[in-house]
Specification:
Elements lengths: L2 E5 L2 E4 L4 E8 L7 E7 L6 E6 L6 E3 L7 E6 L4 E6 L8 E8 L13 E2 L3 E6 L1
Length: 124
């Protein structure tokens, strides 16, 4: 079975950092786009970042540019999201997703596989 499992979330103070991980299994995602989305309570799920299969192309939502970094290790079938300079408004459940094919897209409808999420809470 295809699975994406996120980890690394937690409770941090504003200005702190976390490294989120997404371990994939059940298929090889090396030629797929990997993305991160987040969803705060009462809000819709929103795009955060995506990375091409080679790791050579990345894209970020304006709200996280300069603070978050997405990376991947295809040998380990794992994608990461380094979140830094965290703000209370970054509080959300962060979801890992995989999109079949190499073109980066930003809508949740474009992604084929999803993890169950990891909670990031940023205190003031």
């Amino acid at each position: 079975q295809v699975q994406l499992v996120e980890s690394g979330g937690g409770l941090v103070q504003a200005g702190g950092s976390l490294r989120l991980s997404c371990a994939a299994s059940g298929r090889t995602f090396s030629r797929d786009v990997m993305g991160w989305f987040r969803q705060a309570p009462g809000k819709e799920r929103e795009f955060v970042a995506a990375i091409s299969w080679s790791g050579g192309t990345t894209y970020y939502a304006d709200s996280v540019k300069g603070r978050f970094t997405i990376s991947r290790d295809n040998a380990r079938n794992t994608v990461y999201l380094q979140v830094s300079s965290l703000k209370p408004e970054d509080t959300a459940v962060y979801y890992c997703a995989a999109k079949i094919g190499g073109l980066i897209r930003y809508s949740i409808s474009n992604y084929d596989y999803w993890g169950q999420g990891t909670q990031v809470t940023v205190s003031s």
